[in-house]
Amino acid sequence: MKLLPSLLLCFLLEVLSISCQDTGLERIVGGYAPVPHSIKYIVSIQTMGRQHICGGFLINTYWVVTAAHCNIGLTNMLIVAGDYALTIYEGTEQQILPQLLVPHPAYNSVTNNNDLMLIKLTGPIQQNQYVSIALLPRQGATITQGRICRVSGWGYTSPVGGQIPSTLRTVKLPIVSTEKCNSSESFNGRITENMLCAGFTLGGKDACQGDSGSPLVCDGRVYGVVSWGIGCAEPQFPGVYTALSHFRRWIDDTILSYYSRCNNKD
Ligand SMILES: *[C@@H]1O[C@H](CO)[C@@H](O)[C@H](O)[C@H]1NC(C)=O
């Protein structure tokens, strides 16, 4: 969803005859490889053909959070937890099929507002030394400008693609105020209250194509979900994230109503 170099990227990818979709093509730029299996809540969302599309993260053993624009359809989706190098079998992976996709009902693919989706898994993920659950902020919790957060993912390591070696990457970024991010020098009015910006004024570090849906973690809680941007790591254009503290109630209500519906059936 990162627009400008996205065109260039699409062109390059077309030359390489790889399909370039809006969905999820966003690897971490300017980051580093974390200690293997130290980020245990992250999952890779893949096609049934095992192509990584997006990131996501576990919020309990049956539910994953990702971006709504990562919705490739229930029948084409595979969730992989406990992974580190995507192309290498490490014996720590758990692959699970989704049972239900719940994109936010107010998701707008034009404005990217409410870019959030819940995925119910067909079976529980086993929590172990490679896989665990992420914590969410409470509804309405704020995160102040300048706070250092960390985003991780399997997306591109440079705006024009980067390499294939597919280990997880991570980068630390400061939160940018909505005022600055929404200003005419930056996103010029396209930032809603459901979005959060993070990055450096000079660019150089960012989420990129393939990182969509991945978690931005501040103070041990997931405050943001990689959503969109203009290019990757461009000066003046921080990454834009879905602000999870605006959706805590929706997440809790959606999961609760799923289980009450099930109970009423019997
Ligand atoms: C961003 O700017 C637009 C246009 O000025 C405004 O409508 C919108 O409310 C602003 N967003 C926030 C979160 O203040």
Automatic annotation (TrEMBL):
It is found in: Secreted, Extracellular space. The keyword rRNA-binding does not apply. Keywords: Disulfide bond, Hydrolase, Protease, Serine protease, Signal. Pfam families: Trypsin. Residues 1-20 form the signal peptide. InterPro entries: Peptidase_S1_PA, Peptidase_S1_PA_chymotrypsin, Peptidase_S1A, Serine_Proteases_S1, Trypsin_dom, TRYPSIN_HIS, TRYPSIN_SER. GO terms for molecular function: serine-type endopeptidase activity. SUPFAM superfamilies: Trypsin-like serine proteases. SMART domains: Tryp_SPc. Its EC number is 3.4.21.4. One of its GO terms (cellular component) is extracellular space. Residues 28-256 form the Peptidase S1 domain. GO terms for biological process: proteolysis. It catalyses: Preferential cleavage: Arg-|-Xaa, Lys-|-Xaa. The keyword Lyase does not apply. This is trypsin. It comes from Gouania willdenowi (Blunt-snouted clingfish). The lineage of its organism: Eukaryota, Metazoa, Chordata, Craniata, Vertebrata.
